[in-house]
Amino acid sequence: MTDSSIDELSPILGRWHSTGTVRDEQGSVVAEIDGTDAYSLLPGGTWIAHEVDVRMGADRAVAHELIGGVHPEGGWWMYAFDESPAPGVMRLTRHSPDMLLLSGDGIRSWFSFRAGRDLMTTEWERIVDSEWTPWMSMRFDRM
Predict the structure, then answer these.
(1) What share of the chain is helix, strand, coil (3-state, %, to 5)?
(2) d(Cα 132, Cα 143) in Å, to the nearest integer?
(3) What's the gap between Cα 58 and its chain centre?
(4) 68-107 as b/e, with b when 16 or more CB fall inside 10 Å?
(5) CA distances (Å), 121 to each of 16, 42, 45, 73, 141, in order?
(6) Quick one: pLDDT at residue 116?
(7) Average pLDDT, 10 consecutive residues per value, the chain (143 residues)
(8) What sections of 35-118 are H helices per DSSP?
(9) Entry pTM
(10) Which strand (E) or helix (H) includes residue 84?
(11) Which residue from 52, 82, 93, 133 has the fewest beta carbons nearer than 10 Å?
């Protein structure tokens, strides 16, 4: 890896079995999540490609993200591409030595790899009525 800033994200690299739950605005579980996430370093070593292929209840979510560059406020840019007509734009920062924070328009997610190299967890929140509300809880087991 050539860019030392992207080196900080090396714990997420690899293929993961993704499981979890989705909550509605009142906090009730409305769907189970099951699928895969894969993070790979792109040629040149300054960007990471993230491939998402999960089922959320009866729905399938497929997305491609690019993570890298230097965000002007610190951290890295995240560009998410799915069925939407425009990419989602978010920011990823290191919150602590074993925690990453993804933040975007009305959403945020805390990525923890405290359990070691083979397990990550995330807690997603979204804004509902001007308050941060639990949205998704996920677990990623290295494949």
Answers:
(1) 5, 65, 30
(2) 32
(3) 21
(4) bbeeeeebbbbbbeeeeeeeeebbbebeeeeebebbeeeb
(5) 11, 24, 25, 25, 9
(6) 74
(7) 69 96 96 98 95 97 96 95 95 92 96 86 96 97 96
(8) none
(9) 0.90
(10) none
(11) 82
Q: Which helix (H) or strand (E) holds 27?
A: none
Can you tell me the distance from the alpha carbon of 61 to that of 52, in angstroms, rounded to the nearest whole number?
A: 7
Cα–Cα nearest to 12, from 90, 81, 68, 57 = 68
Which residue is listed with tokens 């070691």? 116
Neighbours of 121 (CB within 10 A): 15
pLDDT in tens, 127-141: 999 999 999 999 999
Query: Which amino acid makes up residue 92?
Result: L
CB 40 within 8 A of CB 9: no
**Confidence (pLDDT) at 136:** 97
